[in-house]
Each structure stands twice: as structure tokens, then as C-alpha cells.
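Let's practice the habit of predicting before peeking. Look at the sequence and jot down your guess about where helices and strands might fall. Then scroll down.
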Amino acid sequence: MTTRRAFGSLVAGAALAALAPALTANASPGRRRGRLIAADDFRRGLGQWATELQDGGTVKAERGALEIDVPSGATVWFRRRLEGPYVLAYTATPVSAGGVNDRVSDLNNFWNALDVRSPDDLFATARGGALAEYDYLKTYYVGYGANYNTSTRLRRYIGEAGVRPLIYDYAEPLLVANEPNRVRIVSDGSTVQWWNNGRLIFDYADPEPYTSGHFAFRTTWSHFRIADFRVWRLSDSH
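Done guessing? Here is the structure:
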């Protein structure tokens, strides 16, 4: 079942939260994974990634994991621009082991992102990791919350300061400490989907879709361990 499109207020978004559990793996994107077009096993450093940190912290890739351990805003961009249709997958675990940043909150993603100030080169414009600096993106954004952040949202940024159009706003699901989140993002023309552990969290039919751009992990004051980053081209199912 696909939830109706809902721009606007948190009240309207909250009403949709009751429908979230009904979105399951039965809602197929209609195409099969094709060839692998990008991957990182996180054993050879950060060569494929660019980091933007608000107040420092640690981002490293070694021993099969991308470790993001930060005291405030952090965005970690995949350097290669992705062209749809594709499906992107990774596994992210919020770490709670007594560390200073082990807050368990904000597993967030940008995808199909470009910066309207430098649309041909995302990295030609400097950004420092604070969330407001990303208002100039045209992008999809999922914020998967927990702790003080008690909502899970899909937004469609339009490249204007202070404007972050809200598509869906749910009170659940939220992160669970030390539990893996097996995320899958589908970018297939107007079909925009974000899955977690086999459950379809967001299913949006965009009449003016963003079909290419950059992907990023985004978080704030948290500690994540990320593995198994893969991107496949989508192919026809017949």
C-alpha cells in the first residue's frame, strides 16, 4: 500500500504515522537488480568519500567498516555521482557502548543531490557540516530518528534557504541501539523508496523526480558503524 502524498504540517505528517507499519517488502519496485556499479568494503581508507564535519570528530574506513563518531553535524559524501535507475544498499549500526558520542540518533541520507550554487560539481562549494548549509541542495533526504529526535521523515529539498519541503513524517520506526539497519534506496524515475530491514518506510511517486546526483550519510552527535555499501543498476524484470 502506498501512503498518500503529504506536504506540509507536522500534524498532517503525524496522521500518516499510523500507516507506516503497513509498508512492507510486498511493495516491489518492479525491476530487478542488474550489474554492480559501485561498492566499498571499507578496507582501504576514505578514497571514495568526502567528509564535512561541523565540530570535528572521527570518520575512518578500516577493517570492513566506515566508522562515524562525531559530536555534532557530519556529512560523508560518496564522491562518485550516481545516475538512475539504481538501487543502493548498506548496513548501519548505531553504536551504544559508553562512548561520548554514543547517543543513538539520526541515521540520515541525502541522495540524488546537487548544490544549486555549483550544479556541475557538488564539491566546488564548501560546506561545514551544519544542517542549514545543505538548504541549497536539490536532493531527497531521509532522517531516521531516535533519542531526542522522535520522528522519521522524508524531505525533498528544492535548493532554497530555509525551505525543506516535508513529504512524510512518522512517529515510528526509530533506531534501536546496537541493532543493524539494512537500508535499501530505490531511485527509479518517479519511484523513490527507502527501505529498512525489508520494510518499505517511504514510497513516494515524484512528478518531477531527481534522477541523478550524489549520495551521503548524514548524522549529528552520534556514532555509527556502516558496512556493505553497494550500488546496482536497475534492469527490466523480463
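How did you do? The chain has a mean pLDDT of 89.
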